[in-house]
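Hey L., structure's done. Input below.
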Amino acid sequence: QVQLVESGGGLVQAGGSLRLSCAASGRTDSILAMGWFRQAPGKEREFVAAIPRSYSIRDYADSVKGRFTISRDNAKNTVFLQMNSLKPEDTAVYYCGASRKASRPMTLNSYDYWGQGTQVTVSS
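Output:
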């Protein structure tokens, strides 16, 4: 089993920045990649960004390219999401996920584990 704990959410004005963290524990050696999804009220959970454990590739949703950056610290089993130039439409609960079956997981069913989520609210 793998446990994921997100932190770093909050309230920010449009144009501001936030940095989310996701710490993994447990059987972290089984993880191939980690990623971030988000879910706004009344909407489906959508892909934001993903990063494999051992490669330099990063994948992003078109809506966040150029504004968000995903990174990792393998020694600390932690993944980060730096969010800049935030917009009100970025408001959502952000979830961290870990995949044991895909190195570039961009769909919900590619993930095996999820964190509890952290709220990000961007005011206009």
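The longest strand covers residues 18-26. The chain has no helices and eleven strands.

-- N.
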